Amino acid sequence: MLFDVHLELGNFELAKSYLDKFSNDNSDFDYLIRLSKWSDHRGNLEAAIKYMEQAKEIAESSNLPATKQWVYTNIADYYGHAGRIKDSYNHYLKALSIDNNDAYAKKGIAWILYSYEKNANEALRILNSITTSYNAPDYYLLKAEIAEFQGDSNLQEEQIKLYKSAVQNEFYGDMYNKYNVLLYAEENIETEKALKIAQTEIKNRPTPQSYDLLAWTYYKYGDATEALDIMEKYVVGKTYEPEVLFHLAQVYKANGKKDEAKNLKKELLESAFELEYH
């Protein structure tokens, strides 16, 4: 659990030190899922999948429904990141076979239908079925994104309003800071709000992903030089998240660093499934 906390906070060396305390136990479920998470953090998706598959074998042999459901959705995510769309889809279905109300699994299937099959109508139908009883704010943003893809500006605006209203609930705390920054950074009149939230996120979690939010806000505001400075100090070489690398490529291009941007192209193409909406 200390590994989980320190990885989330960006204390990567400390997180790894806790993981190393258990490095001799490759048959332990809790260790394997964290080793998988660490591998993903390091940009080694192949290893992340390997360790999660080992954890899946343990979960299936123990036959604990909740554990199997958790593993299926997590490995489905990894398969999607690796472009193994059929495997991803099948494991979301496995999770749903355990709990047919698993909102996360349904969202994963909706994302496949939208981003991979371009079946926006069916994706929206699934998302609408989820939000009749499950109202996490990020589902509104996904529906807004699909509406934009369809050219339905009225639905897009409606869903963004629903999102903004939902996150006013103090119950969520800082849970949706990332989404808020990315949303407000797109709206020039909300730049100051985006910068403030990004700074809060850095204070809470000084991770490369948090600094990326700040850099992206400056970039969208037109200050590509400041964005590049932040990226080079706090982001470059410290994370392999596709969305962050996409932002970095845009910042490089805006600063005339075409070779650096081109070097990221291969990795971004491999992450096309995740980045389809860009």
Automatic annotation (TrEMBL):
InterPro entries per UniProt: TPR-like_helical_dom_sf (IPR011990), TPR_rpt (IPR019734)
Pfam families in alphabetical order: TPR_8 (PF13181)
Domain of life the protein comes from: Bacteria
Descriptive protein name: Tetratricopeptide repeat protein
Gene3D superfamilies, alphabetized: Tetratricopeptide repeat domain
Native source species: Thalassobellus suaedae
